[in-house]
Amino acid sequence: MNKIMKSLISNPATFQIAGLLLYLFYGLLIGIALIPSALLVTSINKLRPFNLPALNTCLLALGIGTSVYLFFIAGVIVFGATGRLLSLGFRPGKYKTTDPTFYRWLIYGGIHTISINLILPYVMGSGIIRLYFKLLGCKMGKDVFINTVGLHDSYLLTIGDNVVIGGKTDITCHIFEGGYLILDRITIGSNVMIGANTYIMPGASVGSNSSIGANSQIRKNKKIDEKSLILPLPGLPAKQIARIMNIK
């Protein structure tokens, strides 16, 4: 299988064809998510229940506005369910860029990127965004408030009860190191407050009843004990720690 992947990548023609097919697949998913909205708008436009054109136009406008959020709901279901199917079998570990799992992960990432840009920014803090991440496989407790789109690879994420995740926080269960995709679990306990712009890396865990201050960074495999208060160190200057030699 790795040899087949290498041959596909090395051949520009097959690589371009694969890319076009992938975009068609993404377009198909968007089209499926748009079906309820299109049915609503076309039905209202065809019905025209009022004798006054102005009232029919107002009704159509209301239908279009409603159809936007209908698309958000349908998109969450379509993209969430499809993303979950693609992520089935993903386990913590290291994957080469020629591994089939890596390419399946890239396709999954494309679906998640569509959701991040088309849907999730407009439903933050609602049950719709919680539904999306649950569909992707996130193990989520009760009364979780999510004010960010940045829960990445959430099929490896566990969140307890009564958790608040602040705006523009990134909780990512993957990194790239040494040419490998590394996937690992992240666990967040109950009664945890995570401030805005926090970055949590793979393998990290946050104990229950903890508070993570805004702009904090929790490095990979870091374990935060229960009842901890984490604050970022202010004003750390950039510092050279090594030189990379023999770069052409």
Mean residue pLDDT: 90
Number of helices: 5
Low-confidence stretches: none
Number of domains: 2
Radius of gyration: 22 Å
Helix content: 40-55%
Task: Provide the spatial order of strands within the biggest beta sheet.
Answer: 2-5-10-13-16
Number of strands: 17
Report the end-to-end length measured between terminal Cα atoms: 33 Å
Please summarize the sheet with the most strands: 5 strands, parallel
- Helix-strand pattern: HHHEHHEEEEEEEEEEEEEEEE
Structural classification: alpha/beta
Global morphology: globular
Share of β-strand residues? 15-25%
What report would you give on this structure?
44% of the residues lie in helices and 18% in strands. The protein is an alpha/beta fold. It has two domains: 1-123, no CATH class; 138-231, UDP N-Acetylglucosamine Acyltransferase, domain 1, CATH 2.160.10.10. The strands form four sheets. The protein has a five-stranded parallel sheet with strand order 2-5-10-13-16, covered by helices on one side. It has a five-stranded parallel sheet with strand order 3-6-11-14-17, with no helix packed on it. Strand 8 (174-177) and strand 9 (180-183) form a beta hairpin. Helix 2 (12-47) runs antiparallel to helix 3 (53-87), helix 3 runs antiparallel to helix 4 and helix 3 runs parallel beside helix 5 (127-135). The longest helix is centred in the first third of the chain and has 36 residues, at 12-47. The mean pLDDT is 90.
